[in-house]
Amino acid sequence: DAIENCSIETHCPSGFSEECPGGMSCYGGLSCNVKDMMEELEASEGGGENSANKIGKHDERRSQFCGISWGDANSKCGQWCPSGEDTDCPGGMGCFGNTECYYSEDLVPTQTPVRVTEAPVTRAPIAYGDAANTRFCGVSW
Fold first, then answer.
1. Which residues face 138 on adjacent strands?
2. Which of 18, 72, 115, 130 sits 20 to 30 Å CA-CA off 108?
3. How confident is the model at residue 51 (pLDDT cuts 50, 70, 90)?
4. Is the overall model pTM greater than 0.90, yes or no?
5. What is the 3-state secondary structure of the chain?
6. How many CB atoms lie within 10 A of CB 34?
């Protein structure tokens, strides 16, 4: 069951069944890998015009702008080039990073202020071959 139904939703990286929905247990050593699933998901979501809202507000790509030189891009803050590629820029301009410009048009404020009471937990990246990537919930192995 777990091997036939492995998905991002049924991933249980800790190996503990408490992560699983009722009646399911966490099984490890399956042939599916959550890293592959994440790559497929990212590829299916693609980039394009909706890619901006997937870029964090502190991402350095928000300071990439088009210009004929870095100084030109930095002073005009005109066309944003999130991919970092010159092909995002019109008229033979190049894409320059680390400008003092900041793209924020896609950022939306929250309805009410949000108070952070604890520092967010950022987990270390997990290598592809890590056993945690092959643990999924199911009724049986």
1. 25
2. 72
3. very low
4. no
5. CCCCCCCCCCECCCCCHHHCCCCCEEECCCCCCHHHHHHHHHHHHCCHHHHHHHCCCCCHHHHCEEECCHHHHHHHCCCECCCCCHHHCCCCCEEECCCCCCCCCCCCCCCCCCCCCCCCCCCCCCCCCCHHHHCEEECCC
6. 23
